[in-house]
Amino acid sequence: MELQLNMGGLSSFLAVPTDVVDKYLSVASGIYIKVLLAVLRANRVDTAQIAHKLSIPESDVQEAVRFWIQNGIFTESAAAKSKEAAPKQERKPRVVSTAQSLTPEEIADRIEKNADIRFLFSAAESIVGNLLTSTQQRTLIYIHEALGLPADVILMAVEYCVSIGKGNFSYIQKLCAGWADRGINTHALAEETIREQTLRRTKEHQIQELLGLNDRPLTPEQQRYISNWTEKLGYDRELIQMAYERTLNAINKLSLPYMNSILNSWHEKGVRTPEDVAIKDAKPSARSNASGNGWAPSYDIEELERRGLNVPKFD
C-alpha cells in the first residue's frame, strides 16, 4: 500500500537522527521513543516536565535519557545543563518500569544485537542452574542499562546472592541498586565489597551460633545488636562470649539489651581484651585488700559510685 503525505499542511517539522530509525527503532521501547521526541521537540532535557507531559513517572524519563546517552544520541553535557538549571529535588527511589515492560521480541533483539547481554544471560543461567525466565531477563537488562553496571559486576552479584541462598532476582536487583548508588561498578570494587560482606556474615553467623539462635533467621533488631558489637565496638567472639556468660549468670536468660549494656560499658572503659576484663574485675578487691583486712565485696564499688549510690566503706 502506498501513501502520499500532505507535507504542505504541516507548519513545522522535527529532525530525528537517522541512527534512531536505522539502529534503535526496533530495539527501543515505546516510552524511550516518546521521551526522545519530547526532548528533541523542547531541545533540552527537563525530566519533570517531560514526565508530566507524557503522564509517566519521572524515573521512566530518566531511564530513557540514560539509554539514549549510552547509545550516543544524547550527550552528558545536555543532560547536565538541564540538571543545573532545575531546582534540586529529593532523590527518588528507582522504579523498574520500562525495562520490565520489554516484549519477548524486544528481549530477543537485544540478545541478537548486544554481545554483553548475550554473555550476561548465558553466564547467569550457568550460575543459577536454570534457563532465565523473561522476568529475570528483564531484570538483568534493567540492571545493565538503567543502573549502568557492567556484565561482569552483575554476574558477581548474582553469584554472591546464590552463594548465600538469596538467588531471588528481586534481591539481586536490590543489591545491585545499592552497589550502583555507592559507585561499585568495577570488578575490583565488587570483589572488595563481597569480601567485606562475606566477613560480616561470617562474624554474624558465629555470634548467632554462640547465642543459640540457629533455629531461625535473625531479626533486624538482633542483627543491629550484633553489628554494634562486631563492627562499631570491634569486639571478637571471645569478649562477646564473656558478656553472654555474665548475662546468664546475672539474669539466668539471654537478653541482648543486657549484653549490649555490658559491652558498651566495657568499651567506654577501654576494655579490649579478656585480660582487660580481669583487671577491671580485680580493682575492687585490690582496693579493699589495701586496707589490710583482706575483705573483698562481691559488688563493683566503682560502678555503684559512678551511678551515684552511697557505698559503705570499711577501714
What can you see in these coordinates?
The chain has helices at 18-24, 30-42, 47-54, 58-70, 76-85, 104-113, 115-128, 134-145, 151-163, 169-181, 187-210, 220-232, 237-251, 256-268, 274-289, 301-306. By secondary structure, the chain is mainly α. The protein is elongated and about 90 Å long. The termini are far apart. The model is unreliable at 81-97, 294-299 and 307-315 (pLDDT under 50).
- Describe the largest sheet: none
Overall residue-averaged pLDDT value: 79
Number of helices: 16
What Rg do the Cα atoms give?
Answer: 31 Å
Unreliable stretches: 81-97, 294-299, 307-315
Query: Which range does the strand content fall in?
Result: under 5%
Elements, N to C (H/E)? HHHHHHHHHHHHHHHH
Identify the overall geometry: elongated
Rounded to the nearest angstrom, the distance between the terminal CA atoms is: 114 Å
Helix content: 55-70%
Backbone structural class: mainly alpha
Task: Please outline the helices and strands.
Elements: H1 18-24, H2 30-42, H3 47-54, H4 58-70, H5 76-85, H6 104-113, H7 115-128, H8 134-145, H9 151-163, H10 169-181, H11 187-210, H12 220-232, H13 237-251, H14 256-268, H15 274-289, H16 301-306
Helix pairs in contact: 2-4, 3-4, 6-7, 7-9, 8-10, 9-10, 9-11, 11-12, 12-14, 13-14
Quick synopsis:
This protein is mainly alpha-helical and 315 residues long. It is 63% helix and 0% strand.
